[in-house]
Amino acid sequence: MTPLIWYLEADILPEDRGEARKIKNQAARYCISQEKLYWRSFSCPYLRCITPREATRILVELHEGDCGSHS
């Protein structure tokens, strides 16, 4: 996702024209707000993009918390 973030933050595109076109098309579905990447959903507000490490941490918290036996 780094080339996408570079494009959204500083309009920097890869030199390969095909790759640059892909990045431009993808960028229409994303935005950066307060240094966090968000995906523009069709039916609801922006959805925050997270890293695999953050996803694991969130799932661990859900399954170990007070409601762990119900999730």
Summarize the structure.
This protein is an alpha+beta fold.
Mean pLDDT equals 87
* Beta content: 5-15%
Q: Would you identify the regions where 5 or more consecutive residues have pLDDT less than 50? A: none
Helix/strand/pairing category: alpha+beta
Question: What oligomeric assembly is this protein in?
Answer: single chain
H/E element sequence: HHEEEH
Distance between the termini: 30 Å
Output the radius of gyration: 16 Å
Total domain count:
1
Kindly state the percentage of residues in helix. 40-55%
How is the main sheet built?
A: 3 strands, antiparallel
How many β strands by DSSP? 3
Strand order of the largest sheet: 1-2-3
Word description of this protein:
The chain is of the alpha+beta class and 71 residues long. The chain has one domain (2-70). Helices cover 46% and strands 14% of the residues. The chain has three helices and three strands; from the N terminus they run H-H-E-E-E-H. The chain has helices at 2-10, 17-27, 52-64, and strands at 30-33, 36-39, 47-48. A three-stranded antiparallel β-sheet has the order 1-2-3, covered by helices on one side. It is elongated and about 50 Å long. The mean pLDDT is 87.
